[in-house]
């Protein structure tokens, strides 16, 4: 998986994978977090969904019993860098909670049914949904 992600990041940045273009029917962005233990920057290609004007990423980890590394990193430091389309910008990652999370999760599952399977496989872990809020200029 690391090699696949490395190649995808290279292609994305070189313009060989059209940034923001659906990959296998899924739009992608690059999310750069700061390692919770190492302090090093880590970039991960992720599928995103739009909720109004904001970008959301889903920490499903394909239904694994533990959260993905990028989620643990942003839980320790919510300051991230987002690359989508021709834009690169700083953002703050904020986990959705309560009714808002439930509403958005229902919409995500309706549009991308495989997330329902991820949720079942991950149980009892609840899959986090993260909003990427651009920093003010």
How would the blueprint of this fold be written?
Layout: H1 2-14, E1 22-23, E2 26-34, E3 41-51, E4 54-58, H2 69-76, E5 79-84, E6 87-95, H3 98-111, H4 114-122, E7 129-134
3D architecture notes:
The protein has a single domain (2-134), classed as Pnp Oxidase, Chain A. It is built from 4 helices and 7 strands; from the N terminus they run αββββαββααβ. The protein has helices at residues 2-14, 69-76, 98-111, 114-122; strands spanning 22-23, 26-34, 41-51, 54-58, 79-84, 87-95, 129-134. It has a 6-stranded antiparallel barrel. The longest helix is centred in the C-terminal third of the chain and has 14 residues, at 98-111.
Comma- or semicolon-separated keywords:
globular; 137 residues; 32% helix; alpha+beta; single chain; six-stranded antiparallel beta barrel
Gist of the model:
With 137 residues, this protein is α+β, with helices and mostly antiparallel strands.
Overall pLDDT confidence: 89
- Structural class per helix/strand content? alpha+beta
Morphology call: globular
* Model regions low in confidence, pLDDT < 50 over at least 5 residues: none
Q: What's the β-strand tally?
A: 7
Count of discrete structural domains: 1
How far do the termini sit from each other?
35 Å
CATH topology descriptor: Pnp Oxidase, Chain A
Query: Largest beta sheet: what is the strand line-up?
Result: 2-3-4-7-6-5
Helical fraction: 25-40%
User: What amount of the residues lies in strands?
Assistant: 35-45%
Tell me the number of helical segments per DSSP (H or I, 4 or more residues long): 4
- Please report the first level of CATH classification, the CATH class: Mainly Beta
The CATH homologous superfamily is termed: Electron Transport, Fmn-binding Protein, Chain A
Could you tell me the radius of gyration in angstroms? 14 Å
Major pleated sheet: 6 strands, antiparallel, barrel
* CATH architecture title: Roll
